[in-house]
Design brief:
Two copies of one chain form a homodimer. Chain A has 493 residues and is an alpha/beta fold. Chain A is 42% helix and 13% strand. The first copy, chain A, contains 16 helices and 16 strands. Chain A has an eight-stranded mixed sheet with strand order 4-11-10-9-8-5-6-7, sandwiched between helices. A four-stranded antiparallel sheet of chain A has the order 12-13-16-15, with no helix packed on it. Chain A has a two-stranded antiparallel sheet with strand order 1-2. In chain A, strand 1 and strand 2 form a beta hairpin. In chain A, helix 15 packs across helix 16. The longest helix of chain A has 27 residues. Chain A starts with 13 loop residues before the first helix and ends with a helix. Chains A and B meet through helix 3, helix 5, helix 6, helix 8 and helix 9 of A and helix 3, helix 5, helix 6, helix 8 and helix 9 of B.
């Protein structure tokens, strides 16, 4: 007979005691697979318990996979699947993920791996790093933000714990609508959707239109994530070359006639990577062209706030009477990138459509952070921080331009002075037959920059360096450009 | 001559003063479009300034779109596009969004609107609401969480402001790996990706495989967002009927032979909407079938923590030696939904692929909240909160089952007792020719429930109600079921 002991003093129910003891005996191999257990009647008599107690125990052991139950027969110990501990696992697994994954997602993975290898190769432990466009978040008043977060949680409490409004925390949307007014954009809070950073805004718009055969006109060069993301969404990128004053609008008109893109993606301010800001006339013409063809514009205002050199050209959205501009903004390029709060301002129907996609993809953004950022904005910290960033980067960019002028010879490279932002785009002189390992030479001289290739879909004939000062102070800028000058002297010398 | 005044006392640069005064005159129509401005030389002489100062001012006015500049000619006032204030906007806009949007995103929008109309129709101001599966976040220890958030920000400081690791905050991933060990799952932190809630985990997996013609096997009925999301991703849902012990595995085997799905999506615990938990043998057989065909399983462990009635059947992932189970978990169903932190535990290559997609879609989750939740977990608050939820919901579910037993006649409906979670799935008796407006009758009796239809792809012959107790205390449960009994008495009486 099975030896079990019922402890009447224990708070554990009888059935639970039976389950645990039998489970232990099975796990210790004292009851091997195939072994018969006593019938409920016999075990109940033996333990002096009600039959239903033993039946519950057997039911539980069955649910846990330790016994087989068949009507009219005694329970039998079952061969249970083992736990997959790390030692027991097949190292490679059986799934061929590249066969399960779509062609598009295989391509995205390939791109990711190439980028990782490159950034791995270009280890930036030493030297001055102009390659990174992330903001210097050491400048962010974290203590103020922490107070605001506390204040928001105290004030709104449990309200912040739900999914919240699908479009985002409405006081924050109202703040953003007021703030956009300062950039000439008239929208209501109902025309705003809060996203996880600007990147999600772009992704949502691309997902809204994604369909095989559809094309999107983009600037060339452009933000390096755009082309892989378009392709992942099954959309065809149409490259419109960047001139010194922005996207070539004659080429755009030809492309519209020929390829009928369903969207034009543009960064009118401090374009990434060229740093070009378009003027009012260019913006008006772009808008007119798109109005005429009823093609929406996706306006990426990622550095809208960083117009610190005057020339406050207003966003295209500011003139958008026909509501075809989908404007994306973000807090990442002034506050800190990890805030993951951006927004889309667009036609109400467009916003409603984007919300519906968002509801199926990740539901909503965290209300707690939204409320914290709202408090930060509402208390004037955001505006004050923008002023501080303007002061700092006006000086930093002036230093950058002065030291470039002083150190980099016209025979080596040319560039245009940006009207704000963090970027200077260096066009290097032709290398006439030479093919030096530029990244290696730069590294040897203690300086890093982003190379032009990664921003073009088609290969560019010219060599470019994108220099970002977003994480560098004046001393670092001076030292970095001096190093760059030495590197270029070696290349062209 | 143009009347401008330079204020030598002002801190504003001279060129800026010129810009502002000319801009004002243009905006006030004092300088109409087409009007010629003086040459730089003349205006400079007149104001007693250097020519380059005036030239800068004209450059800026040009960038802002107020003047046209042509070499050798005087600047001319330009007809500038007006700002699109709310009054000036075309109410409807020119874009036909349903033509721009893909077929799939039009469908998602349609679904969203239907759901909104329904939830609008079923206003739940009054009465007891069994329709909502959101957790009762009034139970959440918000003050403890606030302290943890503060502690995390103080401890990690600026580190939390960057994008952080793409897979998520590593201490949190390590905690989740340890916590999963308690559910029998052996994975390392490298096999975990933090997502914006479990929903994003599902979306990422679907996006990884999305390709026309590919199929995914799902339970029927299932979580209402699954079918629209699959279709949005261009994937074909294959319905496998739910039996009282889980997905019908014989039907699954036939479907695999016939339609070769690339993924099987399952909720082994407290399935939404049926509340069914599968037993160990079912889990083993499902895993064996998928191993044999090398088909990954997407295991949705959304209520893994809520096994408060004993019968701790371990997740399928716990036996996954061949690494084909993609396990998704979340904090939303125990802590609060707005936390927007979930995770995926899967094969390393699969995780790397999902991260690559995520990097192009919304980059990463906010480090600040991740660090706050980590602190909350690390200080034992999470485990304590789970114990509290177990105590509360064990009693609440017992009350629910007792009052159902007492109030609902067998002639009206049948149900199974769940082994935990928040759901009871009521199968209503056949209505023999009657077609009463059930939602309306329930509302009239002050009670709301989710109707079965929304969880099936194909129409189900039977009528079901999904009753969720996730937001109700015992008194509310008793009152709600009493109201439901009155409603059903009216229907069947």
């Amino acid at each position: 007979m099975l030896l079990l002991e019922i402890d009447e003093q224990s708070r554990k129910p009888h059935y639970q005691q039976i389950v645990e003891q039998i489970q232990e005996k099975i796990e210790n191999q004292m009851l091997p697979p195939g072994e018969k257990l006593p019938s409920t009647r016999r075990l109940a008599e033996h333990l002096g318990l009600h039959r239903s107690t033993v039946a519950s125990a057997y039911q539980e052991l069955w649910a846990l996979g330790f016994v087989d139950l068949r009507p009219g027969a005694c329970p039998k110990v079952r061969e249970r699947m083992q736990l997959a501990t790390v030692e027991r696992r097949t190292p490679a697994g059986v799934v061929n993920w590249s066969a399960i994954a779509s062609k598009a997602s295989n391509a995205v993975w390939q791109t990711s791996r190439e980028w990782e290898q490159e950034s791995g190769r270009e280890r930036k432990e030493t030297g001055i790093d102009f390659s990174n466009l992330n903001i210097d978040y050491r400048l962010f008043p974290l203590d103020h933000f922490r107070s605001c977060l506390n204040q928001a949680i105290r004030e709104h409490g449990l309200q912040l714990l739900g999914y919240g409004e699908r479009a985002g925390f409405s006081p924050l949307r109202e703040y953003i609508a007021r703030h956009l007014q300062g950039h000439g954009i008239s929208v209501t809070a109902e025309e705003i959707l809060i996203t996880n950073g600007l990147q999600q805004g772009i992704d949502l718009v691309f997902r809204m239109i994604a369909e095989p055969g559809k094309a999107v006109a983009i600037e060339s060069p452009t933000y390096s994530e755009i082309i892989p993301l378009l392709r992942f969404c099954g959309l065809k990128p149409i490259e419109i070359p960047m001139r010194s004053d922005g996207m070539d609008l004659d080429v755009l008109e030809q492309a519209i006639a020929r390829e009928k893109p369903v969207l034009v993606y543009t960064m009118p301010n401090f374009q990434n990577p060229t740093g070009v800001s378009t003027n009012q006339a260019h913006r008006e013409r772009l808008l007119s062209i798109c109005q005429q063809h009823r093609i929406p514009i996706l306006e990426d205002g990622f550095e809208e706030e960083m117009k610190y050199f005057g020339r406050v050209v207003l966003p295209i959205k500011s003139m958008d009477k026909e509501q075809l501009v989908i404007y994306c903004g973000t807090f990442s390029k002034v506050l800190f990138p990890g805030v993951r709060i951006g927004w889309i301002a667009a036609d109400k129907e467009c916003i409603a459509r984007l919300i519906s996609i968002r509801s199926f993809s990740d539901l909503s953004s965290s209300m707690i952070l939204q409320a914290g950022i709202y408090d930060f904005c509402q208390n004037g910290h955001y505006e004050r921080h923008i002023s501080k960033m303007h002061r700092l980067f006006r000086k930093r960019m002036q230093t950058m331009l002065e030291v470039l002028q002083r150190e980099i010879k016209p025979a080596w490279a040319s560039w245009r002075e940006p009207s704000g932002g963090y970027l200077v785009w260096l066009k290097l002189a032709e290398l006439k037959g030479k093919t030096p390992d530029l990244p290696e030479i730069l590294r040897r001289h203690g300086v890093h920059a982003a190379f032009g290739d990664s921003f073009f879909l088609s290969k560019s004939a010219d060599l470019h360096l994108r220099l970002s000062i977003s994480q560098l102070n004046e001393a670092e800028i001076v030292r970095g450009i001096e190093c760059l000058a030495q590197a270029l002297a070696e290349v062209y010398g």
